[in-house]
Amino acid sequence: MQAEVILSTVAEELRLSEDELLKEALRAVVERQLRQIQAEIAVICRR
User: Fold this and answer.
1) CB atoms < 10 A from the CB of 7, how many?
2) pTM given for the model
3) Count of the separate structural domains present in the chain
4) How far apart are CA 19 and CA 8, in angstroms?
5) What pLDDT shows up at residue 1?
6) What is the rounded CA–CA span in Å between residue 33 and residue 47?
7) Rounded CA gap, 26 and 34, in Å?
8) pLDDT tens across 1-47, in order?
9) What is the SS3 assignment for 3-46?
10) Which range marks the domain in which residue 33 is found?
């Protein structure tokens, strides 16, 4: 699978295990979504 090859290549370049790379990527996505939600809450509270 192409995704597996990309994952393996990126993990190797970053010197991380594939599991650690996936964990960090998921963390980044969740943190970005949390920041967006916090910004939306701030806008709602200013009304």
Assistant:
1) 15
2) 0.77
3) 1
4) 10
5) 84
6) 22
7) 12
8) 898 999 999 999 999 999 999 999 999 999 999 999 999 999 999 98
9) HHHHHHHHHHHHCCCHHHHHHHHHHHHHHHHHHHHHHHHHHHHH
10) 2-46
